Amino acid sequence: MADSTDHLNVALYDGAKGKILRIYTGNRESLRELLSMFQALATGELASVLLHEMTDTSYRKDSPFRCASVACSAKPLYIGRIDITESEDGPVVAWAQSVEQWDDCCGLLEGLLAGSGHGHQYFSDADVEVVVALGEDG
Does pLDDT of 87 surpass 60? Predict the structure, then answer.
């Protein structure tokens, strides 16, 4: 049976400075899939995507940290923004950035993948902080 760290896990919770969207995995291949999604947004190959459509993703629906979904989109001349709305299945996260901002995210993920062990990168927003972690369970 696959461990929860074999795929991307998503959790949304309140941190010391506000909301935190944590995307984590113990599997480098899952992180590479996330990087591929970010690259497709950065190059304009994709205008928007639901995270679970690109990779095997767990939204921890059995916990208080659950998300219903995470949608990522690229918009021209856009200042990054994360909106959270409530649905019957839990919070729905919409993360919109410019292609340049997605390209910056790619660089951060490439650095995380280049490391030999575990680690994390922060992708900040005015209202929501995004953390992508490798080998650090949420």
Answer: yes
